[in-house]
Amino acid sequence: MLNLVRLPLIFISGVFIPLSAMPAVGQEIALFSPLTYGNDMIEYAVTGVTQFSVAADIAALAAFVLIFQFAANRLYKKFNE
To answer: Rounded to whole angstroms, how far apart are CA atoms 50 and 71?
Structure first.
């Protein structure tokens, strides 16, 4: 079940195919994947080239952490009350 979410995120995040080589629709979908921003920071650390700025990557990852933490708290309260 986990692979249904994980594998599409890996393929759309730019790990195997650079974001610049993807069609416009793929690039827009990639913006909603946290792996895109993590991959961008790793690529910057290795090559010095980045799709987004490092500050934007960190801000996006922090936003994803907050969103997922909020969702996890809501689900926890819903199913444990």
So the answer is: 30
Cα distance between residue 75 and residue 20, in whole Å: 36
Q: Which of 9, 18, 15 is nearest to 68 (CA)?
A: 9
Tens of pLDDT along the chain (81 residues) come to 778 888 888 889 988 988 889 999 999 999 999 999 999 999 999 999 999 999 999 999 999 999 999 999 999 999 997
Could you write out the three-class secondary structure of 11-45? Answer: HHCCCCCCHHHCCHHHHHHHCCCHHHHHHHHHHHH
